[in-house]
Design goal:
The complex is a heterotrimer of chains A (320), B (663) and C (303). Chain A has three domains: 186 residues, Immunoglobulin-like (Sandwich), CATH 2.60.40.10; 72 residues, no CATH class; 32 residues, no CATH class. Helices cover 29% and strands 32% of the residues of chain A. In chain A, strand 14, helix 6 and strand 15 form a beta-alpha-beta unit. The longest helix of chain A has 23 residues. Chain B has 663 residues and is of the alpha+beta class. Chain B has four domains: 146 residues, no CATH class; 284 residues, no CATH class; 32 residues; 72 residues, no CATH class. In chain B, 50% of the residues lie in helices and 13% in strands. In chain B, the strands form six sheets. Chain B has a five-stranded antiparallel sheet with strand order 12-7-2-18-17. A five-stranded antiparallel sheet of chain B has the order 9-3-16-19-20. A three-stranded antiparallel sheet of chain B has the order 1-5-4, with no helix packed on it. In chain B, strand 14, helix 12 and strand 15 form a beta-alpha-beta unit. In chain B, helix 4 runs antiparallel to helix 5 and helix 10 crosses helix 13. The longest helix of chain B has 26 residues. Chain B is elongated, with a radius of gyration of 37 Å. By secondary structure, chain C is an alpha/beta fold. In chain C, helix 9 packs across helix 11, helix 10 packs across helix 11 and helix 11 crosses helix 12. In chain C, the strands form three sheets. Chain C has a five-stranded parallel sheet with strand order 2-5-8-1-9. Classes of the chains: A alpha+beta (320), B alpha+beta (663), C alpha/beta (303). Chains in contact: A-B, A-C, B-C. Chains A and C meet through strand 2 of A and loops of C.
Chain lengths: 320, 663, 303
């Protein structure tokens, strides 16, 4: 029975939770000591009682603070890719599996791993980043942690600390999550070279045929802002309804962006930055692009997914 | 690490409420200007929040100087008022003032915390003045509010509702009660004081004095305060014998009566012979800051629990002045012979100041010459009091000039001290040694707990005359004038309006109700005083012995303390961390079923449906196929099904399900 | 009654489509849940035959459109033609006006044409020249599509895929089934001989019955957890939409009806989940080779 109760209270694979008094906790203890001395000096029963009540309150506060973080779970932690130099925002989802609310949870992370003979050193180096006021019972709440990115490639978040001072602020309870979360950092988009000219090379005839501008595909009722030259005037003559002629989607050609094109830019990083900038411009102008790196080629394509693939290749590029 | 945000206005307002309540009892007796400074500061801070009034900022040096000036002025004013800043009253006034100044400059979390902790301190200072039940209850509310303050300051975005915060605060305090009780009972008590108490630490207690000036006791008679409570084992003495002996006054300068020099009497052997009925009783004396302990006339030995002795006057004398409530057991015998053969200070009992009471002296000598014996003379005087137009009144006219002569020949209106003093003068003037004894007479029985409650208004004075071969004999001249005072106690002769509030005085039923409420309340207070407030080193030792702790010393107390505390340390987290695993009883039953299968390494995987799990289980436990299927089907019907089934079938099925390994 | 009817339908279809009981059941589930079906597979595995068989067995009128890149919306929806005799436009309904439409190789058509079809599917009506023409009931679309990345195709965009309740794959038959297929009669002839097992009215009744299958609170919780996981886990590019949630429940109800139960159990959800959500989910990390749906199932608690 007791064992069952114990198991119910502390499941085997629980997160290790630390707790120490906060500076206000020490201050509280100091005040209590003075009050106890006063009570003894005056031999005053009620003063004794109050001191003991407050001592006990400290103990209760410790349990409450511990409970306010007990069994907390880090559900997910991920970030969208960013360009180097931008701030990466990790979305951290904290889950409360308990039937009680969590209050005032603080998120902090340790960007640099600290190795020291002093165990207390390992508690430091956390950067306070965000504050969650409430994690309702059996629900998840997402918050964010921002880190600045310094170089392309994968940048990991490092150790995450979830801590709380609630309810009285006399104790600080925390737990660590060693996340494997990382953010993909694209190279910085910068460069001075102009975008290579678009081509309509012969080998992609089929594709270009389909996307020809003169591919009539039907009528549509006139809407304000449609170009006047596309109005089907013949149809107007028929029934006085303005219609516009519709053509298949317009694309402004295609480009092959190769590593060798950037030869004049400088070192590897600058060349990658140049390619990155070209890819972005190319995507803006809705032209299909192909990326050729010394060890990798991303075939012609367009759209967000394609851009992502290309930028990933840049981000993870290693000199062969 | 800490969020550095300034405390929110809500949390400040909570704190203002808490502090005002905590300091409010002090307003009653501390100088009005201290209260005013404090309340102004609080009001200013509230106005700052409500109407955005300007608040001094620390940055400006003029403000700093101003603050410094105010602080110095406060210290000077308090020193001027109290003579120092060290005493209890001055210290409290200083604390309240400083708290007021602090309130206006709470900016950071740190300031806030310090102020809350000081608030707890103010709560404690209230107990130095009174530890009555209403005060304790009020202070508990204050502690709830102060704790709520700590919660609000940790909830800067006000996610939790106000009521919830108070509830949480109350919950936490209630959860703290067990450890508090254990510590209160078992924490080794040290007899204070540690470094000496300020002079005024126990002032404000009332009681009879060791000198008597006519008109002095009348102040006491207005007082409803309890002087002491007595609970008798067995019989109570008859009302006429309920004389509680206090200081004995020998010397008079014509107006004031005082004790004889103590260094003279201490060397003298007294000779008291006891006889007759014994009364056993325990007495709880309220602190009166004096050295004597009251006892039923005449105690036959000094109590064991208080260091004391019976002095030459037959008064129970404590070694230290009574600064706290004391509790002691005594045995008294009303029949006694006091210095039957020899009285060393007989001359002192005859002294009268020259040029005083001349009329009285003449009268006494005239009557003594008319009577044959001392006893006859005493009777003559008493019958004079009885038969002439002497009146017993609690509101005598003010006497000027020679008070004794004035009383005997003009006003003839007075109460015990008038009669005792004038009777003693008449005795001495006639050559009979006499002295005044002060103390209490009577008391009322509280039917709730059968204790005799003696209040300040029962204060009394009577006379003792020394007669050869009889020793000191108690003669109460008041009884000659008003035998009701002695027989029925002072309650009977006090006007109704003085005994109970005006609004109930009109109806007998209401007065009765009032009486019974009073009695019950006093009984509660008695228990409170005996068991809670008086719990000091001695009581603790008694109590622990009663608990079965033989010879309670530091080690055994520490063992008890440790084991009880660790019990709470285990049980309280269990209570706090316990949570129902599943609200749905059906799911709980199913989990029981699963835990029975867990012995066979059959644990439902995340995302494994009940049917899939059942099929997997059947593969291992072929012989239980039908059971597993039935239970799973019942569970699915209950949990996912359309119709409302009864849960009992599933309950019994799972209860009966005892999976075993196949043979 | 319903049990027998459904079994008859399944038997009838399975007599033509060999060794594909699960797929057939899913297809029927889709019909009963009033959803449209997308079959994605290689040519020649029996996509068209399945659609044919379903139409024949359920007694539905059947049309087939072979999509090509030069197809125009009007080719599907129909056109208004000026009738000189009546001196007004008369509407000539396109092939879409049928109870069961097989849209073969839908990804060969241009996005414009595709969207015309999908719009009609969603609205259950066709709007042309300001006039609306309701489609017959019941109305199903079974679209087939070759696996994407083929040259000259327009894969359906994600937003359009959402319009299909399910996407199923047929896959190659197992050896035994294939053998009997090879030895047996020509499927097309068998199809010709197939008679309707139920009437469209009966089908409508069954559809109505499917919506009345009990879905308990506990089950809705489970579906919500599935949706939440898809949104929060970070594994998926986009979380499942509320429409996807509805689709899961409707499909599970139909599945439970086929399994002859009056309530939905978690296994029903799990049975239909791959077909219902696979085409709505995209991995965030393309490289990661995980089965998105089974990951979803294995990470979400049922109770």
């Amino acid at each position: 029975m007791l064992l069952k109760l114990y198991r119910r209270i502390s499941p085997p694979n629980r997160q290790r939770i630390y707790i120490i008094p906060s500076r206000f906790g020490f201050m509280f203890a100091f005040f209590l000591l003075i009050m106890l001395l006063g009570a003894i000096n005056y031999s005053n029963s009620m003063s004794h009682l109050l001191v003991f009540l407050l001592v006990s309150l400290g103990h209760t506060a410790m349990l409450h603070t511990h409970r306010n973080i007990a069994k907390i779970e880090l559900k997910h932690c991920h970030a969208e890719p960013v360009f180097c130099g931008q701030t990466a925002t990790f979305t951290v989802v904290i889950n409360n599996p308990n039937q009680r609310d969590f209050h005032q949870i603080e998120l902090a992370h340790q960007p640099n791993k600290i190795i020291s003979w002093n165990p207390f050193k390992r508690l430091s180096g956390f950067v306070y980043k965000n504050h969650i006021s409430l994690v309702p019972a059996q629900q998840s709440v997402s918050s964010t942690i921002e880190i600045t990115t310094q170089q392309r490639g994968y940048q990991s978040l490092g150790r995450l600390r979830v801590s709380t001072l609630f309810p009285l602020g006399l104790f600080n309870s925390w737990t660590h999550f060693n996340t494997s979360a990382r953010v993909l950092v694209y190279p910085q988009a910068e460069g001075i070279l102009p975008l290579p000219v678009a081509t309509n090379s012969g080998e992609k005839i089929m594709l270009s045929q389909q996307k020809g501008l003169d591919d009539f595909s039907g009528f549509q009722n006139y809407r304000k802002g449609d170009p006047i030259h596309s109005i089907a005037w013949k149809a107007v003559a028929r029934d006085d309804v303005l219609r516009t002629k519709q053509f298949s989607g317009a694309h402004s050609g295609q480009r092959c962006l190769t590593w060798n094109d950037t030869a004049g830019v400088g070192n590897t990083e600058q060349r990658l930055s140049q390619l990155c900038q070209w890819l972005l411009i190319s995507e803006q102008t809705k032209s299909s692009s192909q990326l050729e790196l010394p060890n990798n080629t991303i075939a012609y394509g367009i759209g967000e997914q394609h851009l992502h693939n290309c930028l990933t290749a840049l981000a993870l590029y290693h000199d062969a | 690490m800490m969020h550095k945000a300034a405390p929110s206005s809500t949390s400040i307002l909570w704190l203002m409420l808490g502090l005002t309540l905590a300091a409010s009892p002090h307003f009653l007796y501390q100088p009005i200007w201290v209260s005013l400074v404090f309340l102004t500061a609080i009001a200013w801070r509230c106005m700052n929040i409500w109407f955005d009034w300007y608040l001094p900022s620390n940055k400006h040096y003029l403000v700093r100087i101003f603050q410094l000036v105010i602080a110095v002025a406060a210290i000077l004013a308090i020193t001027f008022n109290y003579g120092s800043t060290i005493g209890r009253d001055a210290g409290v006034a200083f604390l309240v003032m400083m708290l007021g100044l602090k309130v206006t400059e709470i900016r950071s979390q740190r300031d806030y915390y310090v102020t809350v902790f000081l608030g707890y301190f103010v709560v404690i200072t209230n107990f130095f003045f009174t530890q009555s039940i209403p005060m304790v209850m009020m202070m508990f509310i204050v502690v709830i509010i102060m704790t709520a303050c700590l919660i609000t300051v940790n909830d800067p975005k006000h996610v939790i509702k106000k009521l919830q915060i108070v509830k949480l605060s109350g919950q936490m305090l209630v959860q703290s009660l067990p450890i508090m009780l254990i510590l209160f009972v078992l924490f080794p008590r040290i007899a204070g004081p540690l470094w000496g108490l300020p002079q005024d630490s126990h002032s404000g207690s009332t009681g009879i004095d060791n000198k008597m000036t006519l008109g002095k006791i009348s102040n006491l008679i207005q007082s409803d305060k309890v002087a002491f409570r007595v609970s008798f084992e067995g019989e109570l003495p008859p009302p006429a014998q309920r004389y509680w002996r206090g200081p004995v006054l020998w010397l008079t300068d014509g107006t004031t009566w005082t004790e004889i020099n103590r260094s003279l009497t201490s060397a003298v052997e007294t000779n008291i012979e006891y006889s007759g009925a014994e009364y056993h009783y325990s007495l709880t004396l309220e602190p009166h800051n004096e050295n004597w302990l009251f006892a039923l006339d005449m105690p036959n030995k000094s109590p064991t629990t208080v260091k004391s002795h019976i002095n030459a006057d037959g008064v129970l004398q404590s070694n230290e002045s009574v600064k706290q409530r004391v509790h002691y057991q005594l045995t008294s015998q009303p029949d006694y012979q006091f210095n039957q053969q020899h009285e060393p200070f007989v001359q002192r009992a005859l002294e009268l100041p020259d040029n005083h009471h001349n009329l009285s002296k003449q009268l006494a000598q005239q009557w003594r010459s008319e009577t044959a014996t001392d006893e006859a003379y005493i009777q003559r005087v008493l019958s004079h009091f009885n038969q002439s137009d002497f009146y017993y009144t609690l509101t005598p006219p003010l006497l000027t000039g020679d008070t004794i002569d004035g009383f005997l020949f003009n006003s003839r209106r007075g109460f015990c001290e008038h009669y005792a003093a004038s009777f003693t003068v008449l005795m001495r003037a006639a050559g009979i040694p006499a002295r005044v004894v002060t103390g209490y007479q009577g008391g009322e029985i509280n039917p709730v707990n059968d204790t005799l409650v003696v209040r300040q208004r029962d204060a009394h004075a009577w006379t003792e005359v020394w007669l050869q071969d009889k020793g000191w004999v108690r003669i109460d001249p008041t009884a000659a004038v008003s035998s009701d005072r002695i027989e029925y106690g002072i309650n009977e002769i006090m006007p109704l309006s003085m005994r109970s509030p005006l609004f109930v005085a009109n109806s007998d039923a209401l007065i009765e109700l009032w009486q019974s409420i009073n009695n019950n309340w006093d009984a509660v207070n008695n228990v409170w005083n005996l068991w809670v407030l008086a719990y000091g080193p001695e009581r603790q030792r008694d109590f622990l012995t009663k608990l079965g702790m033989t010879n309670p010393n530091w080690q055994s107390i520490a063992i008890w303390l440790g084991s009880l505390l660790s019990l709470v340390f285990i049980l309280l987290p269990l209570l706090l961390f316990y949570q129902r695993q599943q609200a749905d009883p059906v799911v709980r039953l199913y989990q029981d079923f699963c835990s029975k299968l867990a012995k066979f390494q059959l644990i439902p995987a995340t995302g494994e449906g009940p049917n899939d799990f059942a099929n997997r289980a059947i593969k291992t436990l072929q012989h239980h196929k039908s059971d597993i299927n039935t239970i799973t089907q019942l569970y699915i019907d209950l949990h996912y099904g359309n119709k409302s089934h009864s849960i009992t079938e599933l309950q019994t099925a799972i209860k009966l399900f005892q999976p075993k390994k196949a043979q | 009654m319903t049990d027998r009817v459904i079994n008859d339908v399944l038997d009838s279809i399975n007599s033509i489509i060999l060794g594909k009981e699960h797929t057939v059941k899913l297809a029927l589930t889709c019909m009963l849940a009033k959803g449209h079906l997308l079959i994605e597979d290689l040519p020649g595995v029996g996509k068209t035959t399945l659609a044919h068989t379903l139409a024949a067995t359920l007694g539905l009128s059947f049309q087939r459109i072979q999509f090509t890149s030069d197809m125009l919306p009007a080719d599907i929806l129909g056109v208004s033609v000026f009738d000189r005799n009546a001196s007004q436009f008369t509407f000539h309904p396109g092939p879409i006006f049928t109870q069961l439409l097989l849209a073969d190789e839908v990804n060969r058509a241009t996005p414009r044409t595709q969207s015309a079809l999908l719009e009609a599917m969603e609205e259950q009506q066709v709007s042309i020249e300001g006039q609306t023409h309701p489609l017959p009931t019941p109305f199903f679309v079974i679209a087939t599509q070759n696996p994407s990345h083929q040259i000259g195709t327009f894969p359906l965009p994600e937003s359009q895929l959402d319009r299909f309740l399910m996407r199923i794959k047929i896959g190659y038959p197992n050896a035994a089934a294939e053998r009997s297929l090879l030895l047996g009669e020509d499927r097309r002839q068998l199809l010709q001989a197939l008679t309707a097992v139920i009437t469209p009215e009966q089908l409508l009744k069954l559809q109505k019955h499917a919506t009345s299958i009990h879905v308990s609170e506990a089950l809705v919780d489970y579906v919500q957890r599935l949706l939440a996981y898809s949104r929060e886990s970070g594994l998926y590019l986009f979380g499942l939409s509320p429409r996807a949630g509805l689709a899961i429940i409707h499909a599970a109800q139909a599945w439970a009806l086929i399994a002859q139960r009056d309530h939905v159990v978690p296994e029903d959800i799990q049975a239909v989940l791959p077909s219902v959500v696979a085409h709505r989910l995209q991995a965030r990390d393309e490289q990661a080779s995980i089965n998105l749906v089974s990951d979803l199932i294995s990470h979400v608690t049922i109770i």
